[in-house]
Amino acid sequence: MTLQQSIDKQLPSTRTTELDSICLKAEVIPVLAIQRIEDAVPLARALFEGGLTVLEITLRTDCALEAIRRIKEALPQASIGVGTVLTPAQYRQAEEVGADFVVTPGTTEALYRYGVTSPVPMLPGVATVSELMTGWQYGYRRFKFFPAEASGGVKALKAFAGPIPEARFCPTGGIGINNAEDYLALKSVMCVGGSWLTPKSLIDAEDWDAIRSLAREAAERFHH
After folding, report:
1. Where does the signal sequence lie (predicted)?
2. Stretch 71-87: mean pLDDT, rounded?
3. pLDDT reported for residue 15
């Protein structure tokens, strides 16, 4: 099958539906950089019990892949995304540990080509209209907008909606409790991602109750 046939067959409708079914389950996707493997399951469980059922675990730490394996096993009902995927090799690692979706900070032609044929859907990272148009050529309609605040924030997303109104986004980067609502008010925003729900001080203290409370507050505040 040629690349174009893969695009025509799988995208955009199938992949869009797959990503919508994940991203529309949660207004907020906590982004986790797990430093200690023993924190993985209790941290994920606290967020899940607080009402946040879609989690992104970044590959920025040494134990990330093992953490994802353990979380998938402990919380089979959660949707687990693998973040900071930079290469097709890392994309394959995400497939092997059972990722439900893959998230990239930016996107290369190699990642788009791999993503088109992968059984695991990708939420490609974009920061400009040109990058958005590249993804569009590959059949993608759902994107991560990163780094959101540094790239123009809500105003940029409103501008994107002019030429490409069908695109939908999960903005991440510089988003917290005080500005998440501004993003979620946009028609083009499916959900937001952020690390404010997992403060390092609470993780270091293993204060899972406090993290569960933060998750519950976010789940209730930003409910569709």
Report:
1. none
2. 98
3. 84
Give me the active site residues, please: 56, 144
H or E segment at 209? helix 208-221
Is residue 106 within 8 Å of 81, Cβ to Cβ?
no
Is residue 159 over pLDDT 60?
yes
Q: How far apart are CA 48 and CA 51, in angstroms?
A: 5
* Distance in angstroms between the alpha carbons of the first and the last residue of the chain: 40
CA distance 77 to 8: 31
Q: Are 82 and 103 in contact (CB under 8 A)?
A: yes
Q: Which CATH code is given to the segment(s) 3-221?
A: 3.20.20.70
Half-sphere exposure of 175 (CA within 13 A, CB side): 29
Asked if pLDDT for residue 7 goes beyond 70, the answer is no
Q: Is the pLDDT of residue 10 over 80?
A: no
Half-sphere exposure of 196 (CA within 13 A, CB side): 16
